[in-house]
Amino acid sequence: MGRRGFVIGLVVSLLVAACGAPTTPSPDLYRQKLAWSDCGDGFQCAELAVPLDYARPGADRLSISVIRLPATGDRLGSLVINPGGPGGSGIEYGRAARLVVSPEVRARFDVVGFDPRGVGESSPVDCLSDERLDAFLALDATPDTTAEVAALEKGSREFARGCQAASARLLPHLGTTNAARDLDILRAALGDDRLTYLGKSYGTSLGAHYADLFPRRVRALVLDGGIDPALTRVRLNEGQAKGFSDAFRAYAEDCVAAPDCLLRSRTVDGAVAELAEVLRRTDRRPLRGGGRQVTEALATLGALTPLYDRRSWPLLSDALHAAANGDGDLLLRSADRLVGRAEDGTYTNQTEANMAVNCVDSPYPRTTAGFAKAAEETERKVPGFGAFIMWSSLPCAFWPAPPTTPARPLRASGAPPILVVGTTRDPATPYGWARALAGQLESGVLVSFDGDGHTAYLNGSTCVDGLVDAYLLTGRAPREDTRCPAIE
User: Fold this and answer.
1) Confidence of residue 3 (pLDDT cuts 50, 70, 90)
2) How do residues 256-304 score in pLDDT, each as one tens digit?
3) More confident residue, 64 or 16
4) What's the CA gap between 271 and 276, in Å, rounded?
5) What residues are annotated to the active site?
6) Secondary structure (DSSP) of 151-169
7) What pLDDT is attached to residue 382?
8) pLDDT tens-digit series, residues 294-341
9) Which domains can be identified in the chain, with CATH numbers?
10) Rounded to the nearest 5°, which phi and psi values hold at 463?
């Protein structure tokens, strides 16, 4: 985190000792057997008991929802998967196991998904009503006036107060370190001596923290779309803004080269300016769409969403073309997908859990003025998305639970080889993060994919798929860092 000096270093060491070192839970938690029951389409479901507070492991407990798709062949063990977020539902991801894990791996492993603490079906954190969440997400997240800053601060304070009112007992215990400890209890309950794991995006942070806490309980970890654990939250926001900016330029380069591109401009810089103009006009006057006002914030979310998947680039062209003509419906639908809003106006708890975990993991600025300074600096470095992504974390300035996971390199000393996968133009987890994570882990091995979109496994690269599958099945990683070519 760029900290200097003995005193500050001592504070970090004490925080790590207090929050990062596992306390041994009650032995019965490690001896528990999962009571599986049929939950449709070949899946089985169960509940896992974990401590609410690992400093008091014999006291209150949480229930973690688990799902598995049994192996189709000669079983080797369990493969635990996590889709990221934080806030992404591992239960829903588990139900998609036939799409997110290859048939070869599914033949040998039970594929197991779980909702981490605070997410989905696992003691979900709650903060705002659906109507108030609509209002919060529509707030101007690139405030240009003192009135707009005040409105964003008011909404952010309301978000934090709502979480405290509805989930005060849970909030201090939602950090990634505790979720990693839950993962070890799950490993034991599954009957596996060592963990086999596939984590994407934020799931790489969960996996890396697990390996650092329990290095000798690792069998094989695939960390796809790696996050650099040594970066502060401000630097992570800055890196993500740069990732989305680079991804938009890659999309624009592809579009303007095509004869049927719907963008008016025929250059990449022109396309960037075209997006900026759409957002500026939306800031002045919201677009119409689906009976709701499409504000600049919602339009920005709608433009970011298709960058996660190259196959969605044509949808971005359609959405920007429509928005240029005053119709924000496609951008609104895209934004709703990103934040977990259904057509009937109800939300999953993805957005609330995402904020809650990020706010409690490591420090953000603690004042609106601090966020304003960070947003200004990030926008100067990354024009277009910098201020928006920084301001979007403003509730963390008022969060009622303190951060518990200081930014620091993770070594996982003594772990077997850990496979880290990075996509060169990944918008949400920039390639440099994966490279840094692989370098920090003592046994990290990097697989680099020359491609677009968020994460790489089963996203079109037979090179990546083959390396990941071979590693999961055998536990043997490539001897050296490997580069997979672009998809032809």
Assistant:
1) very low
2) 999 999 999 999 999 999 999 999 999 999 999 988 999 999 999 999 9
3) 64
4) 9
5) 201, 426, 454
6) HHHHHHHHHHHHHHHHHTT
7) 96
8) 999 999 999 999 999 999 999 999 999 999 999 999 999 999 999 999
9) 25-52+63-116+175-230+408-484 (3.40.50.1820), 125-169+255-407 (no CATH)
10) -65, -50
CA nearest neighbour of 257 among 327, 328, 313:
313
At 267, is the secondary structure helix, strand, or coil? coil
Strand partners, 447: 421, 482
Q: Rounded to whole angstroms, how far apart are CA atoms 32 and 52?
A: 16
**Rg of the chain (C-alpha set):** 22
Instruction: Report the amino acid identity of residue 434.
Output: A
Contact 488, 478 (CB under 8 A): no
Tokens of 444: 């990290």
Whether the predicted model's global pTM rises above the 0.85 cut = yes
Tokens describing residue 166: 């509805």
Binning the chain into helix, strand and coil, the percentages to the nearest 5 are 50, 15, 35
Cα 205 from Cα 339, distance rounded (Å): 21
- Three-class secondary structure assignment of 291-347: CEEECHHHHHHHHHHHHHCHHHHHHHHHHHHHHHCCECHHHHHHHHHHHCECCCCCE
